[in-house]
Every structure is written in C-alpha cells, then in structure tokens.
Amino acid sequence: MSNFIDPAIIPKRKLATGEEIPCIGMGTFGSDRFTKEQVSSAVAGAILSGYRFFDCASIYCNEDLIGKVFAEAISRGLVKRDELFITSKVWNDMHGEGDVLLSLAKTLKDLQLDYIDAYFVHWPFRNYHAPKCDVNSRNPDSHPFSVEEFMSTWKQMERIHDIGLAHNICMSNMTIPKLEAVLPLCRIKPTLIEMELHPSFQQPELFDYCLKRDIQPIGFCPIGSPNRPDRDKTEDDIVDIQMPEVVEIAEAHNVHPAIICLKWAVQRGQIPIPFSVHEDKYQSNLKCTTEDPLSDLEMDRLAKADKNCRLIKGQVFLWKDANGWEDLWDLDGTITK
Ligand SMILES: NC(=O)c1ccc[n+]([C@@H]2O[C@H](COP(=O)([O-])OP(=O)(O)OC[C@H]3O[C@@H](n4cnc5c(N)ncnc54)[C@H](OP(=O)(O)O)[C@@H]3O)[C@@H](O)[C@H]2O)c1
C-alpha cells in the first residue's frame, strides 16, 4: 500500500512502566455524525496505514464492529496483538461495586481481546446522561465529585489490573484538586491521563502536574473538534483551525491547520488522538509526526496562543443545584461541593 507509514518510524513515548506507545493514536468517537460501520472501516484503513494506537470507549457504541476489525487484522497477519495499543473507558453508569469488571468484560468481548492495554475511568463522576440528550437536561441522581465514590471505582480498576485484564489503569477529565485528593490514596497510580488539549486550550498547569508525576497526558479533541455535536458548542468557543497563529504556520508549512495542531501536540509531549473517517486525513495525521517539525519559534508562538477555551464543558453531568459547567472543573483550586 503506497500510503503505509512504517510504525517503526513513528516516534514513541515511554510510560512509567517502561512500555513504549506511539506518539499519536486514532480517536473512535463518531459523534452524532458517523455510523459505527464508518468508524470501524476507518480503523481497518488506519491499521493498514500504520496506526497502532486506538482510543475506544464503551459509550461510543461501536466497540463490537471495531473488535471485528481487530480480530480480522490479527488473524490475517496484518498486525500482531502486542503491536497494538488499545484503550477503552468505563462509562459513568458502571462505577458501582462489581460494575467495572462487568463493563470491561463487555468491552473485551466486543473488542475480541483478552486484555486491554489501558482502561480509563472516562469521567470522575457517576453522573450520566442519556445518549444525545439535550445540553440542559439534568439527571436527578447527579451529584458533585466524591473522593469516596471515586476511590471505590479506582479500587475496582486496581483489581482488574491485578488480574491482568488491564495493563494500565488510567483517568480522564480530571483536575489538579481532584488528583491531589485521590493520588495519595491510589495503590496503583494512573500511567496515562486523558484531557482536552489543543492550541486554544493547553491546560499548562495540569499538563505539567502530570509530567512531574510521570503520568503521560493524552490529548483529546487535538484539532479543536470542529465537527463536535451542537450540544458541545457555545457562542464564545474558539475554532483552533482558524486561529491566526495556526493558520499562518500552516501556510508556511503548506499543510492544513489541523496538521499544525497535531505537530504542536506531539512536539509538546502529549499524545493526540485525532479522529477522522477520511483516509486522506487520517493518513496525513499519522505521517505529519515523521516529517517537517515545527521550529522552536513556531512552538513558542503556539504556546503563547493559549486562550483557555474549554470546548467539552460537560454540562450534561451537572447536578441539580450546580451553578454552571465551571463547577465540574474546580476553577478556584478546590473541589466543588
Ligand atoms: N476522554 C474523553 O472524555 C474524550 C472526549 C472527547 C473526545 N475523546 C477522544 O478524542 C478523539 C478526538 O476528538 P474529536 O473527534 O472530538 O476531535 P478532533 O480530533 O480534534 O477533531 C476531529 C475533526 O477534525 C477533522 N480532521 C481530522 N483530521 C483532519 C485533517 N488532517 N485535516 C482537516 N480536518 C481534519 C475531522 O473532520 P472530518 O470529520 O471532516 O474528517 C473531524 O471532524 C475522539 O474520537 C475520542 O476518541 C475523548
């Protein structure tokens, strides 16, 4: 295949365990726009193109078809299981006692795997919403973050690590105050934390906090998720691929602004997980990590372009008396009660 990028030349990141993983992965959240058939056939094409890291989740409702793709690629000898790094996430309605194992068992069955490389707590709350629900809907059972509840979920994560079903156990959508509260209580520390990261939302404090503790950040929405569902859009949101800094650097490199977002992400040190079902795009996303790096001046310019513009605000996880989405993110440095 002409557009095959040898996985051996894709830069790697070393986790705290010593394990190496590719510096870029592919997202699999089809949002409300793409069917699971489209997403899974993109995964098949991505394996052929040289991708080895795939970011899955039970709530994306496509693990069964993606699993068929993995099984076929492995049985046809296109890739070996241990060359793939596959992640998944437990959804908010499966944090109860015994539920984490059940959730992972379903994911492993769907993905046709006997272990997952990394399993994430998708959100640090039990609050959940019906798929595609309105942004203003509130589940009456929702409540603020609870250290006790989170730790009971994490203890289940530690057990699935103990029995070898998850090689890494990981967190997502955390804040520094929440990490300060739970990390000292973890018997097994997370090796990866997934967080929103793109040029207009760089989260420098959380990013540095993770690096200092040998936790590798994974950056979701690395291109600023230009086609995210309407429920995740607000008027003031910045469009990363239209930011002058990104556009001008893209012109200088003769690439799409999306590519600049990804080069910046990889060179900064997070692992971006861009999504596209379009072959030309997902191939160029992988290839850009192997050529034509950004200069120090360009990296510096992009660092200064941060606008602290969170896109995935999580409104649907709020509880009845919450003030607003900011309550999920502990902006004053303490856990919102
Ligand atoms: N942990 C969490 O809570 C969480 C939250 C959100 C997302 N995620 C993960 O992060 C992944 C990525 O996030 P995302 O899909 O929201 O955002 P994204 O990767 O920032 O943006 C995806 C969009 O960028 C466009 N795109 C991709 N490559 C491009 C290229 N080379 N040139 C031009 N446009 C390009 C695609 O357009 P086309 O569709 O037109 O190709 C696609 O709509 C998800 O799939 C999911 O796996 C995790």
Distinctive features:
single chain; 337 residues; alpha/beta; 8-stranded parallel sheet; two-stranded antiparallel ribbon; 10 strands; 33% helix; 12% strand; globular; binds NADP nicotinamide-adenine-dinucleotide phosphate
What does this structure look like?
This protein has 337 residues and is an alpha/beta fold. 33% of the residues lie in helices and 12% in strands. The protein has ten helices and ten strands. It has helices spanning 36-49, 63-75, 99-111, 147-162, 176-182, 204-212, 244-253, 257-268, 279-287, 296-303, and strands spanning 12-14, 20-22, 26-27, 53-55, 85-90, 116-121, 166-172, 192-196, 216-220, 271-272. The termini are far apart. The model has no long low-confidence stretch (mean pLDDT 96). Bound molecules: NADP nicotinamide-adenine-dinucleotide phosphate (NAP). NADP nicotinamide-adenine-dinucleotide phosphate binds next to α8 and α9.
Radius of gyration: 19 Å
Residue stretches low in confidence (pLDDT < 50, at least 5 long) are: none
Helix content: 25-40%
The main sheet orders its strands as 3-4-5-6-7-8-9-10
Largest sheet, if any?
A: 8 strands, parallel
Count of helix runs: 10
Q: What is the strand content?
A: 5-15%
Q: What's the shape?
A: globular
Instruction: Report the strand count.
Output: 10
Instruction: Summarize model confidence as the mean pLDDT.
Output: 96
Taken in chain order, the helices and strands follow as EEEHEHEHEHEHEHEHHEHH
Distance between the termini: 54 Å
Structural class: alpha/beta
